[in-house]
Specification:
Elements lengths: L1 H14 L5 H12 L4 H8 L3 H22 L1 H24 L4 H18 L2
Length: about 120
């Protein structure tokens, strides 16, 4: 369940702009702000079933976009590989006795970590 919530939240970051404002807000309230169906229903003056319907339709749109484009998947893979590269560079850096190379490696590690955390 936690992984699904995290996945929908990530997809919302990538593809949220294609949803209606209402869908985007309800999904954000549910997945990011941990609001209950009842709380969202009260805020929008609709039934809990109405909220559930909006959430399911929005989730379907987000997952369909990810299935077609794969942007979130590629982002996560690049982030993981970037962390792996930074780790390997750090390991190499501990074995080098050259200050110029060591300085360059430290700079690269910082750049990679900045990109990975973007």
């Amino acid at each position: 369940m936690f992984e699904k919530n995290l996945n929908i939240s990530l997809l919302l970051d990538f593809y949220g702009d294609i949803l209606s404002e209402r869908q985007r807000d309800m999904i954000s309230m549910y997945y990011n702000e941990d609001c209950s169906l009842a709380e969202i229903a009260e805020a929008y003056e609709i039934s809990r079933q109405g909220v559930r319907s909006v959430l399911k339709k929005g989730e379907t749109i987000l997952t369909d976009m990810e299935n077609k484009l794969g942007l979130a998947y590629r982002f996560m893979k690049m982030r993981d590989k970037s962390a792996e590269i930074a780790s390997e560079l750090d390991l190499i850096n501990t074995k080098i006795n050259n200050d110029d190379i060591s300085s360059k490696i430290k700079s690269l590690i910082i750049e990679i970590n900045d990109l990975a955390n973007y």
